[in-house]
Amino acid sequence: MINIFKSDIYRLIHGRKLWVMTALIAVMNIGLIALSFYMVRHVEGELDADTAMFDSMRFDSHAMLLSELGITDTTLSVLATIFAVLVVNEDFETGFIKNLAAGRSMGGYYVGRLLTLAALTVWHTLVYIVSAEIGFGILGFRFDQRENWGVYFGFVGLVMLGVFAMSAVVAFATWLCRSRGVGIVTMLVVQPMGPAEVALFTAAQLFDKPVSSWFANAMEWLPSYNFSQLDATAAIGGMPVWLHALIAFVGWIALAGGAAVLINRHRSVC
User: Fold this and answer.
1) Secondary structure of the chain in the HEC alphabet?
2) d(CA 255, CA 249)
3) Is 125:76 a contact under the CB 8 Å cutoff?
4) Which of 55-59, 100-104, 163-167, 245-249 shows the lowest per-residue confidence on average (mean pLDDT)?
5) Mean pLDDT of 158-176
6) What pLDDT does 95 receive?
7) Which phi and psi (to 5°) does residue 64 adopt?
8) Which residue of 7, 138, 148, 227 sits 20 to 30 Å from the alpha carbon of 188, by its own alpha carbon?
9) Residues 204, 216: contact at Cβ < 8 Å?
10) What is the 3-state secondary structure (H, E, C) of 147-179?
C-alpha cells in the first residue's frame, strides 16, 4: 500500500501530467479572476452585492474570496476528477498492473491508489487557493475583517473532502468497468448540478409526498449537493451545513473506497 503510494508520487512528480494540470488550474483560475474583474468594471446600472464586492476591490475575508470565486462550483471538482480518471486507469492501459498482480492480493494496490487521490486532492485545492490569492493580490484586492482561521481551514478542509469524495466515486466506477470512458461519464454525473442531482431534483418536483420527499432527501446526501452548499448558511436536513457535508463526504468516501477495494482485491486484472 505505502510502496504503491510512493511509486505513484514519484511517477507523478517526474511525469508531465501533474504539472500540466497544475498549470491548467492556475491559468484558468487567474484568467477567470481577470475576466470577472474586467466584466464587473464594465457593468452598467445598479450592482448586486456580489458584483459590488468585486467593484470595490474588497472582501470580508479570505473564505469569502474563495466562495465568491466559486471554489464550490465545478471548476476545481471537474479538473480534479478528470485527473483522477487518468491516474486510476493508467496502470490498466499500460499493462503495468499485470506485473504488480502476480500471485498477490490487490487490496493494498487500491488502497494505495486512493491515498494518491487524496494527496492529489490536497495539491489541486492548494494550487487553486494559491492562484486565487495571487490573482486577487495582483489586482489589489483587500480584506475588511480579521480572518477567523478556524472557519477558513474548516471550509478548506471540507472542500478537500468533497473533491476527494467525488474522486473516490469516479475511481470506483473506473476500476469496476476498467474503462476511461465510463470514468469520464461518471465524472460528469457526480458534478454539482450534474445529471444525478438534476434527476433527483426533477423527480422531487414531479411526485407528490411522501415520494417527493424520498427523492429530495436522497439528493441532499449526494456529495455534489453538499459540495455546492458549503458556502450556504441555511441548514440541510435539520443539521448545520458543515456537519451534514462532513457526514456525507466521509460516508461516500467509505462506501466508494471500501467497495473498490473489496470488489477488486481478488479480481483478475486481465
Assistant:
1) CHHHHHHHHHHHHCCCHHHHHHHHHHHHHHHHHHHHHHHHHCCCCCCCHHHHHHHHCEECCHHHHHHHHCCCCCHHHHHHHHHHHHHHHHHHHHCHHHHHHCCCCCHHHHHHHHHHHHHHHHHHHHHHHHHHHHHHHHHCCEECCCCCHHHHHHHHHHHHHHHHHHHHHHHHHHHHHCCHHHHHHHHHHCCCCCHHHHHHHHHHHHCCCCHHHHHHHHHHCCHHHHHHCCCCCCCECCECHHHHHHHHHHHHHHHHHHHHHHHHCCCCCC
2) 10
3) yes
4) 100-104
5) 95
6) 77
7) -65, -40
8) 7
9) yes
10) CCHHHHHHHHHHHHHHHHHHHHHHHHHHHHHCC
Rounded distance between C-alpha atoms, residue 115 and residue 4, angstroms: 9
In the block, cell 466508494 appears at: 256
Cell output for 198 = 438534476
CA-to-CA distance for 112 and 58, rounded, in angstroms? 43
Q: Apex CA 135: angle with CA 134 and CA 138, to 5°? A: 80
Measured at the CA of 16, the angle between CA 171 and CA 99, to 5 degrees, comes to 55
pTM value is 0.89
C-alpha cell at 191: 458534478
Per-residue pLDDT, 40: 67
pLDDT one-digit tens code per residue, 98-115: 777 665 668 888 999 999
Q: What's the rounded Cα separation, in Å, for the pair 260 and 189?
A: 18
Q: What is the pLDDT of residue 41?
A: 67
pLDDT at position 137, please?
A: 82
The gap between the terminal CA atoms of the chain, to the nearest Å, is: 21
Q: Which three cell numbers stand for residue 79?
A: 479538473
**Cell numbers at 137, concatenated:** 493580490
